[in-house]
Amino acid sequence: MLELNNVEVIYSEVILAVKGVSMRISEGQCVALLGGNGAGKSTTLKAISNVIKTEDGRVTSGNIQFNGKRIDNQDAVDIVDTGIIHVMEGRRVLRHLTVEQNLIIGGHKETSLRAVRQRLDEVYSRIGRLAALKDRTSGYLSGGEQQMLVIGRAMMARPKLMLIDEPSLGLAPLMVDEVFAVLKSLKDAGVTLLVV
After folding, report:
1. What distance in Å separates the CA atoms of residue 148 and residue 72, rounded to the nearest whole number?
2. How far apart are CA 189 and CA 28, in angstroms?
3. pLDDT one-digit tens code per residue, 62-121
4. Torsion sign over Cα 46, 47, 52, 57
5. What is the C-alpha R_g of the chain?
6. Which of 142, 177, 157, 183 is nearest to 29 (CA)?
7. What is the pTM of this model?
């Protein structure tokens, strides 16, 4: 499904961030990308989703393919359209919006209100905690609840491959268990996962 071939990433035309990264991920797998701070894990995910361009970075060598098609030269929006959804580190919720409004934004490509409602129901059934919090302002949620929200927002886009950066960072042990239970349920439902 996803293949990285000897990928090199440079920031600002001078800072070598990643060199020689190669990996293959088959459909339905859950793969962990491990390494120390500064090793290039987040940069690798950003290169796959091509949000690296927003940070003055680019893939300068090698290539990235998704379902046999090269994507390292595509816009991030087009990559989302292929089914790759990136849950970035730092629980980036839209703090002034409610939980449900955040989720609806994740499903903005749905063509009808009925389809959005169906996606919301699916997210709420998989992450019951979000159903109970749907009218709460997301900026006031705990860190674990915000992490559940960004995963739920990603689910709204019907991912084939979900890139998840540090989903347990700074969370209480019970919330870590809940987050990984949600990720397991996504894998069981056929979503391929690449987790830093």
Report:
1. 28
2. 9
3. 999 999 999 998 999 999 999 999 998 878 888 999 999 999 999 888 888 898 999 999
4. positive
5. 17
6. 183
7. 0.89
